[in-house]
Specification:
Layout (H helix, E strand, L loop, with lengths): L1 H15 L19 E6 L4 E6 L12 H13 L8 E3 L2 H4 L13 E3 H11 L2 H12 L2 H14 L22 H11 L5 H5 L3 E4 L4 E4 L11 E9 L3 E10 L2 E10 L2 H18 E5 L10 E4 L5 E2 L1 E3 L4 E5 L7 E6 L2 E3 L7 E9 L2 E10 L8 H14 L1
Parallel strand pairs: 11-16
Antiparallel strand pairs: 1-2, 1-9, 3-4, 5-6, 7-8, 8-9, 10-14, 11-12, 13-18, 15-17, 17-18
Helix pairs in contact: 2-5, 2-7, 4-5, 5-6
């Protein structure tokens, strides 16, 4: 009895010890056991590490990342609600592999179905959600492939919505990183991917998250694991530290332990060596631009700067902004007219550019326009 207790304590200790590696300024391909891997910063889509990123491979249940993208889009579009009741079909109930043992005709809310997919990687719940959105899994898979094309996932072909091994159901580490970055733009996913243990069916069914990094990696936020005989052990892991998010993808690991340690190495490398800075104009707003022969002497302008830049942590170089804008415009000027650019420069190179546009219309001076202006002024007295 005492021996069993010691073993149990050791297992718990192993699970809770932070899984990380000594941060280094470089990471070699041979340090990652996975045959294919990618580390991406999701807001800029910059690749920080890659190993055979476009090798075509199976990805098992990481397929569900795309399934979840379409589920959250359907909810945000009002086609589905978290409180909606889904009735499991015979097809959904027939799924093998990891599932929550749905029975034909069994009912469950969308919220609980999503929880089952994210936490327990339930194949049957994934199919039930797909059918609720599109009527059939086949039609849903068609939508998955359309979305993949829209995201630029050129290595990917989906054949099902849950990742069970099927001929031609293939992707790449790069494409998995792309769709993972897309999924986390739906921040509701973190309400589910952060769950460690929960229950379904009023407490009758316990589910435990397949992402063991939740208990062992600082800053982990998700995302999805997958294992089949064809795919091996796979993972897409997301984490956030110091306002920087990262996506680490490994495909084809020999063991589950290796996929977790590989992802931890990738994330540690990223957090140790990179940082994200918001791009902004020093001094705030832009000055108005002069208008020649206009009903107003100037026109106001704006520049929508809504991005951030990824920089090496070791660098002391500052990001500078350069404004190149027209000195004078000829009336008439339409709202939304491009009149210049704001360029952000780092270490001598332009890292991003944004258009400067007018915010209003300025009419040309004519006898008719002046007369109309004077009449308005007179009537206002």
């Amino acid at each position: 009895m005492f021996k069993k207790r010691i073993i149990s304590l050791l297992l718990v200790f192993t699970l809770l010890v932070p899984l990380s590696v000594v941060a280094t300024s470089s990471l070699g391909e041979d340090e990652i056991t996975a045959p294919a891997a990618v580390l991406m910063e999701p807001t800029t889509k910059k690749i920080l590490f890659e190993k055979n990123p476009h090798d075509i491979r199976a990805c098992a249940s990481i397929t569900k990342v795309m399934t979840l993208i379409l589920v959250f889009e359907a909810i945000e579009d009002g086609k589905l609600d978290y409180t909606d009741i889904i009735t499991a079909s015979a097809h959904a109930a027939s799924m093998g592999g990891s599932d929550i043992w749905l029975e034909e005709g069994e009912q469950m809310t969308v919220d609980h179905m999503i929880k089952a997919v994210v936490v327990a990687s339930a194949n049957d719940a994934a199919v039930a959600l797909a059918e609720a959105i599109c009527g059939t899994e086949e039609e849903f898979v068609s939508k998955m492939n359309e979305k993949a094309k829209a995201l630029g996932m050129n290595d990917t072909t989906f054949k099902n919505c849950n990742g069970l091994d099927e001929e031609g159901h293939l992707t790449s580490a790069y494409d998995v990183a792309v769709m993972s970055a897309e999924l986390i733009t739906h921040e509701k996913i973190f309400d589910y991917s952060s769950i460690w243990i929960d229950t379904l069916r009023g407490g009758e069914t316990q589910i435990v998250n397949t992402n063991k990094l939740l208990k062992s990696y600082s800053g982990i936020t998700g995302l999805k694991t997958g294992t089949t005989s064809q795919a091996g052990s796979c993972m897409s892991a997301t984490a956030e530290r110091d306002e920087m998010s990262l996506v680490a993808v490994v495909l084809g690991c020999d063991t589950g332990t290796n996929r977790f340690s590989d992802c931890a190495k990738l994330l540690d490398f990223g957090f140790a060596n990179y940082m994200v800075k918001e791009l902004s104009l020093k001094g705030g707003s832009l000055l108005p631009v002069k208008v020649k022969n206009g009903m107003k002497p100037t026109v106001s302008v704006t520049c929508d700067i809504s991005k951030s830049a990824l920089l090496p942590k070791s660098s002391n170089t500052e990001i500078t902004s350069e404004i190149n804008v027209s000195q004078e415009l000829e009336a008439p000027v339409e709202a939304g007219t491009k009149v210049g650019k704001v360029s952000f420069v780092y270490d001598g190179s332009t890292i991003d550019e944004f258009d400067i546009v007018t915010t209003e219309r300025v009419e040309k001076i004519t006898f008719k326009s002046v007369l109309g202006f004077l009449l308005c002024k007179m009537l206002s007295f």
